[in-house]
Design a protein that fits this description.
Layout: H1 14-26, E1 47-50, E2 58-60, H2 62-74, E3 79-82, H3 98-103
Antiparallel strand pairs: 1-2, 1-3
């Protein structure tokens, strides 16, 4: 993968956006911990992708997730998890407000 892709906006197909938005809605809990690092730059991982035939999941920081998101989704991951708040710059991704997830005031209407 070229590093040139990092400066371009991530473009995703409607199907890929649906998959990401569904994943954000249905799996809000992170499978990652502080010891899980980005495979590219060793920052804390904010996303995990298990690709077909891959032995180990790929993990990326927010920056590299955004850089590779289109290619990762095109590879049709068996499963994946992304930190929604790291995708707020990606057009079409429904990012929940972080405050709502922490409030716990019992007034949410979901
Ligand atoms: Zn990274």
């Amino acid at each position: 993968m070229s590093t040139n892709t990092m400066t371009k906006p991530t473009t995703l197909s409607p199907v890929q956006l649906d998959q990401i938005n569904e994943a954000i809605k249905t799996a809000p809990e992170s499978p990652l911990n502080a010891l899980d690092l980005c495979d590219r730059c060793s920052k804390g991982a904010k996303a995990q992708f298990t690709l077909p035939h891959a032995e180990n999941p790929l993990r990326f920081c927010g920056h590299h997730t955004r850089a590779y998101l289109g290619a990762l989704m095109a590879a049709q991951p068996v499963s994946f998890w992304v930190a929604a708040e790291d995708l707020w710059t990606v057009n079409g991704v429904d990012v929940p407000a972080p405050d709502n997830r922490r409030a716990g005031d019992g007034l949410t209407d979901s």
